[in-house]
């Protein structure tokens, strides 16, 4: 008989159709995030689940859903999934790395540019009807070309952003990461490794792309923000919680940095009210990977993984391949 799976999020109808060729599919029809109790209820008897970046898959949920064999996410970040708890119960976990790298890097760069050049602040000014004359310093911001790009988190996306800065805009690239790039990788983009405090102090434009974990919670907080240049910008396309949003709002108000661009927030979709009050921050609703082509590729990869995981194939991007080895 065919395995039963839950698609816990609305996704492209043809992705669901493809899954129906292999599985008895229950598709959650609401566009909002599924509630925890609803998720547990609908997972009863299901062998697999298709998720994205927000469904909390933890030990309590796993113990309440003993039929579950595979959790396949269309996101690259997987801080919503307790991978160790899954591994301990023989549940395979897959994410969607690679397919969104360039699209997310495009957005990170765009958000950084919008932040430095005050694009959304300028548009609000114009729409409010306040544009009465040209002025020498009207909405004057910070240059991108030739400036120093600081990349916090030098994984695939960080490297793709660094390449854009170095090759496209003549930026000097500095970075901080737990592990250093190889000398050849550093040489290819002229990137220099620094400690986190050095990075904070030297970056003209800091772009954050480090995954969220207990180790990166509030990695950028009051102390780090105090090190930034008053002309610097900070852009976060990683995860809420890597930056202390309350401390950031205070630092912006105090003029400790020039501006911030944020695609992710602590406790999103709520946004810290203090951030909504400062004009020099560009706010977007967690859309860094949202080109249609890339969202499609992410959904397809998650579907491919789910099909492989439950039909005896080789999942493409397993996070705990040891589960496959011991199955
Ligand atoms: C989105 O935030 C992702 O992790 O893919
Ligand atoms: C606020 O809306 C501003 O841009 O000043």
TrEMBL record:
The record's annotation in Pfam families points to: 2-Hacid_dh (PF00389), 2-Hacid_dh_C (PF02826)
Tell me which CDD domains the record gives: GDH
Domain D-isomer specific 2-hydroxyacid dehydrogenase catalytic residue range list:
5-320
The organism encoding this protein is Ideonella oryzae
Q: Which family does it belong to?
A: Belongs to the D-isomer specific 2-hydroxyacid dehydrogenase family.
Name of protein: D-glycerate dehydrogenase
Top-level lineage group: Bacteria
Q: Matching PANTHER family, A to Z?
A: 2-HYDROXYACID DEHYDROGENASE-RELATED (PTHR10996), GLYOXYLATE_HYDROXYPYRUVATE REDUCTASE B (PTHR10996:SF283)
Where in the numbering of this chain does the D-isomer specific 2-hydroxyacid dehydrogenase NAD-binding domain appear?
109-288
Supply the InterPro entries for this chain. Answer: D-isomer_2-hydroxyacid_DH, D-isomer_2_OHA_DH_cat_dom, D-isomer_DH_CS1, D-isomer_DH_NAD-bd, NAD(P)-bd_dom_sf
Keyword vocabulary terms for this entry: Oxidoreductase
């Amino acid at each position: 008989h065919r395995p039963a799976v839950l698609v816990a999020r609305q996704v492209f109808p043809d992705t669901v159709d493809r899954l129906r060729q292999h599985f008895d599919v229950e598709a959650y029809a609401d566009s909002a995030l599924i509630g925890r109790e609803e998720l547990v209820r609908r997972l009863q008897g299901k062998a697999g689940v298709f998720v994205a970046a927000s469904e909390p898959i933890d030990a309590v949920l796993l113990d309440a859903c003993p039929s579950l064999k595979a959790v396949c996410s269309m996101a690259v970040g997987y801080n919503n999934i307790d991978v160790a708890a899954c591994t301990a119960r023989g549940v395979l976990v897959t994410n969607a790395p690679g397919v969104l790298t360039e699209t997310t890097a495009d957005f990170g760069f765009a958000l950084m540019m919008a932040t430095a050049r005050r694009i959304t602040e300028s548009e609000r000014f114009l729409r409010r009807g306040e544009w009465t004359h040209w002025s020498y310093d009207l909405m004057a911001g910070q240059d991108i070309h030739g400036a120093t790009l600081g990349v916090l988190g030098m994984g695939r996306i960080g490297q793709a952003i660094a390449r854009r800065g170095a090759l496209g805009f003549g930026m000097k690239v500095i970075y901080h990461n737990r592990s250093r790039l190889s000398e050849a990788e550093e040489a290819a983009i002229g990137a220099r490794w620094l400690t986190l405090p050095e990075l904070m102090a030297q970056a003209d434009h800091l772009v954050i792309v480090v995954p969220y974990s207990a180790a990166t919670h509030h990695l950028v907080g009051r102390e780090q923000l105090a090190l930034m240049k008053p002309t610097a910008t900070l852009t976060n396309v990683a995860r809420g919680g890597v930056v202390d949003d309350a401390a950031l709002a205070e630092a912006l108000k105090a003029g400790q940095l020039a501006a911030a661009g944020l695609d992710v927030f602590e406790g999103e979709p709520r946004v810290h009210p203090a951030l909504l009050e400062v004009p020099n921050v560009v706010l977007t609703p967690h859309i860094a990977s949202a080109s249609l082509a890339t969202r499609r590729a992410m959904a397809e990869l998650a579907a491919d993984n789910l099909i492989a995981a439950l039909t005896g194939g080789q999942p493409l991007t397993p996070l705990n391949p040891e589960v496959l080895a011991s199955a």
